[in-house]
Each structure stands twice: as C-alpha cells, then as structure tokens.
Amino acid sequence: DKYLWFKGIPLPAVDFIPELLREEWENFVFKDEDVLIVAFPKSGTNWLIEILCLIRSKGDPKWIQSVPIWERSPWVEAEYGYNILKDKEGPRLITTHLPIQLIPKSLFSSKTKLIYLIRNPRDILVSGYFFWSISKFVKKPESMEEYFEWFIQGNVPYGSWFDHIHGWMSMKGKENFLILSYEELKRDTRSTVEKICQFLGKKLEPEELNSLLKNSSFQVMKENKMSNYSLPHGQYLDEKNGSFMRKGISGDWKNHFTAAQAEAFDKIFQEKMADVPRELFPWE
Ligand code: A3P
C-alpha cells in the first residue's frame, strides 16, 4: 500500500529513513540552538516553516526565493532531510511530522525550542483527502467517505491525529514548548508571528515584520516555486488534478462533510479528546 510501517505507524515510504540508516538516525542529536516544527501533516506545516525562515532572514525573501522549502527546514525523518541536517553547523530549523514516540530521544535532553502546530482535524482531514489524492506516493482514497474512515482509524500517513496530539501534549507546560493553531495564525497572523518571535527571543523591525507577512501570505507562497511544491515536477504530485497550495482557509470542512459525517466526527472528537483542555482547540 506504499506505506512503510514503522512501530505501528504508517509512513509514506518516500518520506522515511531507510532501514540501513535507522540505527544511526535514532541517535540523531538535537542541539539547544535548534528550532523544531512539529505538526501532523496538513496542519499548515509549510506555512509555519515559511514564517520561521522569514523570521530568521528578518523579512528578507532572498532565502525563501532561492532554496526549496524542504532544504531550509528539512524533515528529520526523511533521508534527504537527515543528510542535510546531520552535517549542518550552527542553529538549524528542523521539521517533523512524527508522533512523539518515534522522534530521536536526544530531543528530550536538549533545550531545542519546539513549536507544535494544531489545526482543526476536520480541515486536516479535508486537506489530506485532496492532497493524498494527487500525491503519487501514498495509497489514494476512492472517495471522501473512504478517507473519512481511514482518518478516524489512523490509517493515514503518520497515523492517528488523536494520538499525535495526545503524545506531544505531554510536553505542554515546558518552557521550550510553544503550541500554536492554524486558526489563530489565520485570524491574526501579525500578533501570532509576534508571539513566535517572543518565544524565539527575536525582534523584528516593523518593516521587517511587514515584509514577512507579505512573503508568507497564501498568494505569495502559491507563486513561489521554492515553496509551492511544483519543483519536483510530475514526480510526487499529479498537478493536473490540484496543487499543494489548495485553499488556505479555516472551516472548509463545512463544504465537504455531510451532516452525518459532521455529527459522527463531533462524537468521536468528544470521546477521544475529553481529557485535553478545550483552550487548545480554538475552533470548538
Ligand atoms: P488546505 O488544503 O486546506 O488549503 P501542510 O503544510 O501541513 O501540508 O499543510 C497544508 C495546508 O496549509 C493546506 O491547506 C495549504 O493550503 C495550507 N497553507 C499553506 N500555506 C499557507 C498560507 N501561507 N496561508 C494559509 N494556509 C496555507
């Protein structure tokens, strides 16, 4: 089914470190000065990467216009990403979709700053349905109904969203752990970016912040070939039928769920997330 099952979690084989490297990879060393972006796929991971890159470059778009996004903040679980990261000197931007139990253990003894990005799982589900339908590297769903079931069962890339949240929320309250939501980023990008800057101990001048906001906007990212996943052309995405930069809004699930699906999802959400504080879910 094009998945590589790793400790019970289905991962897109193309994303994941091969068997040969596994032991070395498990000893990957996170450094205190690193910043790690953690998100379940389709939560807005790449948007947050773009913002962090622009914080680093003080709003200057040169970097985001000249280097592909997956090289600027590589996925530690991907072979190409790991290979870039392992030899890189100085502070690194690192991305991961992994559930907490699979991340290399050195993370927990480092002061690496972590940003966990949450999004309404209904929107993640819809975004994932369209994205995996055009991707050439995972099992394609036949219909929204089918994908809905897969998502609930955790039979989608990186497993169960519900488990992903539960796992990473064990870090909540730690000084080096910031939780953000796609919804707050969308609603008030400026103050959310200021919150990120504060967490990272960075300060942007007003014109630098303005440039950041412009260059990380949906429209500009959609046009930036270093960020819109049009580069590995035809290899990973079937772009005749959609694009990575799809809609970029909150609440699109309302256009795709049936009333019965909405009701069923509410019920499952209440059951599975009863123990997680409501304040983490600004859409509920
Ligand atoms: P949609 O499919 O709902 O449009 P990820 O990076 O984790 O794969 O998440 C992809 C989702 O983030 C997609 O959602 C994509 O459109 C959205 N996204 C990417 N860049 C964005 C931006 N600058 N502003 C808002 N949404 C963005």
From TrEMBL:
Membrane-crossing segments per the record: none
Catalyzed reactions: 4-ethylphenol + 3'-phosphoadenylyl sulfate = 4-ethylphenyl sulfate + adenosine 3',5'-bisphosphate + H(+)
Pfam families referenced in this protein's UniProt entry, alphabetically: Sulfotransfer_1 (PF00685)
Record EC number: 2.8.2.-
InterPro entries the UniProt entry points to: P-loop_NTPase (IPR027417), Sulfotransferase_dom (IPR000863)
Domain of life: Eukaryota
Enzyme class: transferase
Keywords for the protein's UniProt record, in alphabetical order: Transferase
Domain Sulfotransferase residue range list: 32-276
The family this protein is said to belong to: Belongs to the sulfotransferase 1 family.
Protein name as catalogued: Sulfotransferase
Gene: LOC101387423
